[in-house]
Structures are given as C-alpha cells and as structure tokens.
Amino acid sequence: MKKTLFLTVALATLLTVRAADKAKPAAKGTPVTATFYITEVKCSSCASSIDESLRKLPTVTKVDDLSESTGFAIITFDPAVVSHHQVAQAVFAAAPVHGDPYVATLKLAIPDYAKGDNAAKVDAVFAKHKSNVRVELKNKARGEFQLFFEPLAAGAGKPGPQGWTLDAFRTAITEPAPKGLGLAFEVKSER
C-alpha cells in the first residue's frame, strides 16, 4: 500500500514538474531563500538524490547545507514560478536511498498566537489551507508551528506556482483586517 501511494505521488510530481517546466513564464520574480527541514537524510547519497530532484524544478538555483548532519536544506528559487509546496513535493519525489521517502517541512512562528482570540483566528486560516498543508502546533506560548505538505495534485498545463503558497498564507496572517489578521509572522531560517 505504501509503495503504491509513493509511486502515485511520485508520478503526479513528475507530471507536475514537467508541466511546470514547459509552462515557465518568460519573466521571473525575485528569488527567495527558504529553509526546508528534511527527514530521512541518512547519508550523502540521500542528499544527492534530493539535490538532483530539486534541480529539476525551474528556477531552483541553489541547494545549500543539505547533509545527514544538518536536517535541513537552504533552497533558493523563484516563488513566482515555483511554490514552496512544489519544492517540498520535489523533495518527497526524490528516490529514497534507504526506503523511506524524504519529507520537507517549514517551521513557522506567529508570536501572538496565544493572546486573546488569536489562536481561533489563526486556526481558521490554517483550516482554509488543510487540503494543501497539515500544521502541527509545537509551542503554543511562542506560537511555533511545523507545516507538513500534502501530496500536490498535478496541474498539467497550469503556469506558475501550484499548491500552497507562502505569500497567500502570509497575507492572511499579516495584512490588517479585513484582508488578514494583522499579526506578526515569520518563517524559521537557518541563515
């Protein structure tokens, strides 16, 4: 069952990556650098497999600090072309060297999460994204979360970023009402 699910997700990812590559917009936005925390990296072959998969994505220009000892990769890409979701999906699609697929997550902080009715409001924003991400609360008092990406549905022929995007999520949290909640928000970085 796990192998069938993995093969289905890997095939969907391959189709997504190829479709995204063919549908690259001519103009690029500003590249961003994000830290993705990656499980199951046990050796240099694991890191190589993930690096190779990531470099198939359009606009991925750098993959730094990925090794069995770090537990993360610092990845530079253009979010106007490729979403954080697609980057995480490419990590998952990498050929697993030791049998278990690699899982890429982001770590987020919303410092005022526990104040007043903010938790309910933030949880409502998370609920709107539940088809794309699963969020685990790690520390309520500090508003620390870990974001896990659901398998990305192939969007053949759709140009631009697919799945969950950090910009849409950030807007919902940081913009003043009525667009958002007006709360501070940060993505954990190892740089």
Describe the protein.
With 191 residues, the chain is of the alpha+beta class. It has a single domain, classed as 2-Layer Sandwich (Alpha-Beta Plaits). Helices cover 32% and strands 19% of the residues. The chain has helices at residues 2-22, 44-54, 84-93, 118-128, 166-174; strands at residues 32-38, 62-64, 72-77, 104-109, 133-139, 144-149, 186-187. Strands 1, 2, 3, 4, 5, 6 and 7 form a seven-stranded antiparallel sheet that branches. α1 (2-22) packs across α3 and α2 (44-54) packs across α3 (84-93). The radius of gyration is 17 Å and the shape is globular. Mean pLDDT is 86; it is low at 1-27.
Question: Helices, strands, pairings?
Answer:
Blueprint: H1 2-22, E1 32-38, H2 44-54, E2 62-64, E3 72-77, H3 84-93, E4 104-109, H4 118-128, E5 133-139, E6 144-149, H5 166-174, E7 186-187
Antiparallel strand pairs: 1-3, 1-4, 2-3, 4-6, 4-7, 5-6
Helix pairs in contact: 1-3, 2-3
Characterize this entry briefly:
With 191 residues, the protein is an alpha+beta fold. 32% of the residues lie in helices and 19% in strands. The chain has five helices and seven strands; from the N terminus they run αβαββαβαββαβ.
Ranges where pLDDT stays below 50 over 5 or more residues in a row are 1-27
Shape: globular
Total beta strands: 7
Task: Characterize the main sheet.
Answer: 7 strands, antiparallel
Structural class: alpha+beta
Examine the coordinates and then state which fold CATH places here, giving the name of the CATH topology.
Answer: Alpha-Beta Plaits
Mean pLDDT figure: 86
Q: What is Rg?
A: 17 Å
CATH architecture type: 2-Layer Sandwich
Integer count of domains: 1
Alpha carbon gap, first and last residue: 39 Å
Taken as a percent bin, the fraction of beta residues is 15-25%
What is the N-to-C succession of helices and strands? Answer: HEHEEHEHEEHE
SS element count, helices: 5
